[in-house]
Structures are given as C-alpha cells and as structure tokens.
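Minutes, methods subgroup
Present: GH (chair), OT, SY

1. OT presented the first of two proteins processed in the latest run. Sequence and structure tokens recorded below as shown on screen.
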Amino acid sequence: MPDHQTAQLATSMTELKIQDSPDQKDAALLRAQVELYDRALNATSTQFAIVMLTGPDLDKVVYCNRAVAEHYGYPAAEMLGMKFLAEILRLEHARCLEVIEGLQAGREVSMENEVARKDGSTFWIGLTLRPLTGMDGQLTHFLSIGADITRRREEAIKKQELQNRLIAEMKERERMAAELNLAQKLESVGRLAAGLAHEINTPIQYVGDSVYFMRDAYQDIKRYLDAARQFLDSLPIDTGNAEQRTALDGIATSIDYEFLQAEIPKVIERIGEGADRVAGIVRAMKEFAHPGGQEHVASDINHALQTTLVVATNEYKYVAAIHTHFGELPWVVCDIGELNQVFLNLIVNAAHAIHDSGKDVSSGEIHIHTEVAADDMVKVCVRDNGCGIPAQHLDKIYDPFFTTKEVGRGTGQGLAITRSIIMDKHGGRVSVNSIVGSGTEFTLWLPINGNPRKKDEQ
C-alpha cells in the first residue's frame, strides 16, 4: 500500500474515531493496525469507499479498497480526491444534491446505477450509502458499500424476457384457441345457414313463379272480362236481358269490382317484391355462409359489403340508417368468407354502440366508405355516431376476451379475430379513432394483390 494512501487512511480513520488513541500509542503500532484494516478490506470482493460529507472536500473520496479500484479501472491513488457521486458515479447535479441531503439527514441511501470505467466500458453496480459520525455525533463522512450486479441484472432481464415470451405465447395460444373455436362455430353455423337457405330457396322459387303466373293470368282474365263487359254493353236493352244485367251489376257491387280491379295488380306486385326480397336474402345468406377454400382469390369487396348489410339488417334496422359510399374498386385477392366475418363484426359493433348511446333509427348513422388507397391498397371505413370507446380501453380492444358489453352480448373475440384476419392473414392494417359521446371509426387497409408475406413464403 503506498505511503501517501496509508497516511491518508490513517488520517481518515483517526478523524472518524475508528481507532481512538487516548494513550498516544506510537506511530508504528497505529500504522500496523491501519494496514491490517486495509488488508482485510482489500481481501473482500465487496466495494468499500469512504467519502467526505462536510466542508470544502464534500463528496471527495478519502479511502477505497482494491475492489473499487479494480472495478472502476483507476489506480487506487488516483481515485483518492475524486468526487464519488459526481465524477465516479457521474450522477446528475440534482441527483447528487438529493443523495447528499438524504445522507446529511441521517438516512441510508440505496441505488442501482450503470457506471463507466476509466476506459469507457460500463457495468451495473448496486450501492448502499450510510452516513458516518464522529465521536461527537456529528456527520463527517459516508460509507459506500457496493457490488457489481451486471450479471444479476442480465439474468433478471433474461428471466423477464422469458416470462414475457411465455406470456406472449400463452396469449397467442388463447387467441388461436378462441379463433379456432369461433371458426368451428362459424363453420357449423355457415353450413346450417347454407342448408337453410337452400331449403328456403325452393319454396320461394315456387312462390315467385306462382306470382309471375298469377300476374299474367290476371291480365288475361281482366282482358276477357273487359271484352265480355263491352259485348254485354253493346247489346240492346230490349232484348230481354235486363234481368241478367241487373244480376251482374249486383254481383259487381257486392264484390266491389272496381276496387278489386284496381288493387289486385298492386297486391300481386307486392307479393312479387316480397318474394324477390326473400330470394335476395337467401342469396346473400348463401354467399355469406359459403365456407369457401383456403386459397385467396380475387373478390368484389363492395359486393361483399352489400351482402353483409343484407345479412345484418336485423341488427341495425331499428337503431341506425345506413349510408354507403362505395368507390370504384379493383377486385382484391383475399378470403372473402373471412372478410365477410370482419365486416359483420364491425357493423354489429357499430349498431350496438349506437343503441348504447340511446339513439334510434332517426338519429343513429352508420357510414361505410370504400376507396382505392396508396401503396396498392383498398381502404374500407366503418363509422358510427354511437357512444365511442374510452381512451383507457383503446389499447385493449384487440385483446382476446376483452369486452365492455354485458354478459351474453359480447364475447370479446370479434375485434381480436378481426385484427388477426386483416393483419396476419391478409397482410393489411387496422386503425381505430374514437371520441366518447361522438362515435367510432374503424379503417381497414387490404393489399389489392393479396398478402405479400404469403408470396414470400411461396
């Protein structure tokens, strides 16, 4: 140990009253004791430093053991006189003042810091700073006890990363399980709907064909009756047919012939329109429920939206008016069955939000807008003027099973699956903008030429 360091240590320890010498033992004995303390401290891997806490030398190192010097890469003699908090730990000025004030108040201070060695390399250290008092009870120094915690922190970070990865994998498994469960349900419902649509389609065709026949037959019968009436009217009254004329006029009056003549065509027309409407719904159900294949094919997005609106009519017809603004779109390479499910989720959610806001069909509005966007994308926007989504929920709406709806009205899977279909399966994007009390807008971007990641995999 250098003489000047030994002398400095002896002075410091004398000031700290570490070794009181009322009998004024000789200097050789004091030096031997000090060297013994120094060897003991240098034999440990724990870092010890003694730092001034008062006077003009505030924050200056007056002693450090070998572990401190080795970890920081300085010669021990060079560290003596350096400012511990400001120069060695390189704390900001405000932080230095905060630590010193805490120590001067008699409090122990603990910290973990990334510090730089003399050569510029860094490591993490855990420190405990304890105030030291002299025999008179006055604060004079503080003791720094530290250890290199770099490996511990790295292990903690790795452990945290592993935990995060496990949590992410669990969430992904939950999402996949939810998606698979819903897909199986949708497939079953789709097959049922397709079968039901097929069963309804046959009698509706009978009704439609019968209406068309009845409409044509009525026109023929009406033409015959008109001709018979004209013939009867052309006969002279004195031919003995007055009684028959009176009977016919009575029948015409009793059945309100003029009214029937005017209304029957209207009734036939309404029946025909109803049959056409049911047939249109059946076609929409068949298109919507068709399971399709795994291959993405070019499809008409506008037509898919129109089909979905027909299927979802019962969800919105009493709470909102639909406003569509369909742009001229190229056909998009996609799985149209999956996109039908996305569109249905967004439309149903919009209808629920409008209902929850207290609006009805006279004030509730759902706007659906499509257009060609940049980067060979098609953009689909679904906007409502419902209750909106609170800001604290916006980052959770895509989480599986997250829902703010009452039990039985929402499963929390719709938007999670929507995001998966658009982003993972189609390589698109999803965004949401919402203002509480004003409404919500979901925007989808779909690559016109299909998911680019699928092409890279091929």
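2. SY then presented the second protein from the same run.
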Amino acid sequence: MTWRSSARRPPRAESPLVNWQTARPWLGTVARLFLGAIWLWAAVAKLGNPREFVQTVRAYDATWEWLSKAIGYGLPVLEFGLGVLLVLGVATRLAAAVSAALFFVFLIGLVQAAARGLKLECGCFGSGGESLSTQYTIDILRDLGFLVVAAFLVMWSFTRLSVDEFLARNDFVEEPSAKRMRSAEGQRKYQAELAKKAKDARYRSLWLNGSLAVVLALVALIGVGVQSNRAKISGNLSAANATVSRGVVFGKPAAATVDIYEDFQCPNCRNLEQTIGTVLDADVRANRAQAHFHPIAILDSASNNNYSSRAANAALCASDISVDTFVEYHNYLFGPAIQPAENAGGRSDLQLEAYAQSIGLTGSDVTNIDRCIAADGHKSLVEAMTEEASKKGIIGTPTVFVNGKQIDNTLEAYQAAVAAALKNGPAPNPSVTPSPTPTPTGTATSTESPSASPTPSPSSKHKRPTESGSPKK
C-alpha cells in the first residue's frame, strides 16, 4: 500500500519539470503575441509612407539601389504578414524562424553602421535617417532581445489560444484501459496509432508551413509592386524657374557651381545662410559663382503640420515670380524670428502667405503666391527634389557641393572651393544665361552636366552630413 500511494503522488523532485511543461505553452503565448504586436507596429509605421522608408534604407549605404527599393517596399508587407501569423498562432515555428533571420540581419545592419561611423536612426518603427543622437547600444540590445524571443518560439512553438493548438487536438490519442495495455497486442495497437497520428501531424505541418511560406513570399512580392506604385510622385514636376535636378538656379554660369541642399526647419541651414549667405550673394552677382538651391523636406516629422514640405512649396511658389523673389523669400524664411524651432509647431499657410508682403510683393504677385501656397502647387516638385537628393546619398541638411565636390559647411571651406574653381578655369561667358530646362510632367529626369548634378564620392558617402539641428563635425 505504501508503494502504490507513493506512485500516485509524484516525488517533489519532479514538480519543477511538471510546472515548466505546464507553464511553457502559456509563456510561449505571451512571447508569440508580443512578437506579433512588434511586427504589426513596425509594419503600420512604415506602410503609410513607402518613399520615406526607402530613403531610410538608402541611408545605411549598404545596398544597391534596386535592393534598397525592394527592402523599402517589401519589408513592411512581410513584417505585417509575420505579425498576423504570430497573433493568430498559425505556423508559429515558421513565423518565428523568419523573424529570427530578420532580427539577425537587422543586427548586422546596425553593427556595420556603427563600425563605419554612420550616425543613423534605425528606422525600425517608421522614419529614420542620420542623427547625432544615435543609440546603437539600445537598438542592438533591443534586437538581441527580440531575437531571443523568436528563438524561444522556434524551439517551443506550441502555444495556447492559437490555431496550432486547435489543429493539434486531432493528434490526441486516448490512452487505452489498463486491462488492454496489459496485453502485448493492446500495446502494439496503441503505439501504432500514436505513430500514425505523429506521421499525419508532420505531413500537415509540412503542407501548412510550405503553403504559408509561399503565400507570405507572394504577398511580399505583391506588396513591393503596390508600395512602389504608391511611392510614385504624380503631378507637375516642373516650375517656371525650378527643376527637380537643378533646383532654383541663381546667377549666370560661372567657374564655381554651388549646390545647396537645405530644409527650412533646419537650424543648421539657418546658420549656414548666416555664415556664407552674404558672401555667396556677392559671388553670384560678381559672376564668380552660380548657386543652385535645392529646398528638400526631410524634417516633416519635426513639426506637427509638415512645415518642411509646406515651406519648400511656398519658396518654390515665390520662384514662379522670379529667381530674385525666391532668394528674398528664401532668406526671409531663414530669419531667426521666422524659422520655427526644430521639433516644434511650424508656421501656418496664412503666415507663409503673409511673408510675401513682408518681402515687398504687392498686387497680383501676392495673389499668385497665396493661391499657389493654398493649393500646394509645388508639392510634387518638393517630393521629387527630396527623392532625388536621397538617391544621391544626401540624408542630412545642410549639404553643400562646389563643382560636384562636397565641402564642409564653413565660410573657409566655401571660399577655398570657390577660389580653387576660379584658379582652375575662367567663368563661362556671362552674356549667356541659360534658362532652367523644365522637367516633363510626371518625370524627374536629369539632363544637366555632371557639375550641376553633384554625387557624393564613395568616401564622402561614408562621412554623411550631420542631421539638421546638430553641429557638423
């Protein structure tokens, strides 16, 4: 009697194992739902603006253009699919294995960016890009934690409250009675039934996982096409005095071609204007330099009303009147009392319209600018200019090139570059003033010479310009 009683009551040493086997599926449930929520959060944050996420991928400077687009358009769709599978608890091991592979790739991307000295926001949950406030240690530890959760689900994929659990009910084999199990024939039949159920479960798992893997891949491929189409810039991509590739050209052809990429909510851009603005204007009017202004919008997230895009649109509206009007309006927007603080609310459209009168415009000129600002007349052109800059490796503002070579944002660097340009060759004939070549509607094709279309050299792409609002090293 004593022996039978102890057999019915498991020894204390076995209790932790029993508790672990009981708790493990519930722990897996928490891990599965957590990981699924992470993927859904990341996907939704990126799906809304496919062009912006492609620009984030480009910032890592680690993939070819076609691959950057494939990742930028396809990854959010894949993340959404993984999130759905994990939340439903179907093909959990497959979803966890793909998740682990992605987290490993993300870790490689973060580590290589840190090793190369790139200072980026990871873009894991939406917009990314260059920033001096990078937190690679936190990003790496976070992804390592996600990787551990995914590995747990790969090892122990059975969880509660899941489709997998529902399907597994068909695999249950009720244990025969004690009388039947005492015979060899009864034990053989029981073991044969167990083997058959296990074999059926393996086939079902292979079929289900294989089918869902194909579906997931097809959905990601379809997502690439859909997101690519959504990222297309529609509308008029030309203006009276501005093009996608050349920007707003101020001055006649000269020995030094100065390309300036700037964002109207960027404090460092204002500092640049205060540093070299007067000298640049003098050089342009003396035919020593020709300025190409490229107003781009990379800081919309730093305001609550997309001020970067709206201010760039307003400046291009001013360029419709004349290049000189653009320069005046451009300089006014960078005034210390006008430019809003970064990460603060931007100026309203009514204020942007009022600035036209502040620079001395009257009559029909004011009316035309007001209409253009209210209608976002050059919204598509701003988007195209921003995308063109991203393709050239420009992810921070201000960025300055002289004759296609990037320079530091200092007066000394600018003067040295212009002096070198004047020394190397005379200015073109100032009597010839080419007008900007309009870009055909719906395209962003560049036709200018290499000097007018600066492309960072491989070395300069490893030394990205600092993000607006932070001092450049």
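Chair's summary of item 2: The two ends are 83 Å apart (CA to CA).
Next meeting: continue with the remaining queue.
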